[in-house]
Amino acid sequence: MAITKAVIPVAGLGTRFLPVTKTSPKEMLPIVDKPAIEYVVEEASRAGLDDILLVTGRTKRAIEDYFDVSPELEQVLRRKGDDEKLASVLSPVDLATIHFVRQGRPRGLGHAVLCARQHVGDEHFAVLLGDDLIDERDPVLPAMLEVAQRTGGSVVALLEVPQDQIQLYGCAEAVPTDPDFSAGLEVGGEALSSADVVQINGLVEKPSPEDAPSNLAVIGRYVLSPAVFDVLEETEPGRGGEIQLTDALAELAKSPDKPGHGVYGVVFRGRRYDTGDKLDYLKAVVQLAADRDDLGADFREWLHGFTAGLQ
């Protein structure tokens, strides 16, 4: 079972970053010199997902333009002989075959995924959220794709978080898989244990800390069985009046022996950058800039002096 399709929802209004997101999509906010959305598309492409559907809204034309050719700009750069900048302009165009569909009404993540049904068809597919940037040195998607291929079910990425923060996430009730099941799976070159590859028995969206079944939070990477579409069609709006993907996955987890059902998790312990709010976005920019081969050394030296002066 080859998995080649990815869905990236980008229709959100980005209200936490107003006023800049009044005219510019939050996914186009730069992380150093590339928009956040490019990091996500690159991650999908590296995992072999070369057919990518972006679920957009009416204010997201800039994203479509970014992944399209720009003949005038390319011609100017060629005339100048600026091959480095030309390569950076062409790179997003060549990452994958990219399609677009509009989510007419913002009715939640589950509805955004449902908008992809016609494009995905009867295939397994990945869903990547733009608020979570996964470091390319710690790729989690390949292991998730392998688990989906072994089981025929759906797979979510999980992160251990402090118990008092679990109300910010979907939360998994899970049990370790058999040690033989996790054999050969790795993230960032590190082998996964049976405790890192779990079977999910239940999911709760943003539970209170005292009611949470674990400290395993669902983060923005999924590999989904096409069975999720039928469940989403029947899923009533939940928290916030939105159709929650978590609710649909919880329903799939109830019948693990049914074809296409069953939900598994891969616990992610690598480098992840949260761009979900202003402070975390700034942290992500600093972390990624400090690791850059071209900027990192000078930036770290400046940052050391700057922070020393704040003490």
From TrEMBL:
Coiled-coil parts of chain: none
Keyword Transferase set for record: yes
Residues passing through the membrane, by range: none
InterPro entries in the cross-refs: GalU_uridylyltTrfase_bac/arc, NTP_transferase_dom, Nucleotide-diphossugar_trans
Keywords on record: Nucleotidyltransferase, Transferase
GO biological process, one term: UDP-alpha-D-glucose metabolic process
Enzyme Commission code: 2.7.7.9
Pfam families: NTP_transferase (PF00483)
Catalytic activity: alpha-D-glucose 1-phosphate + UTP + H(+) = UDP-alpha-D-glucose + diphosphate
GO molecular function term, any single one: UTP:glucose-1-phosphate uridylyltransferase activity
Domain Nucleotidyl transferase: 5-288
Family: Belongs to the UDPGP type 2 family.
Protein known as: UTP--glucose-1-phosphate uridylyltransferase
Source organism per UniProt: Rarobacter faecitabidus
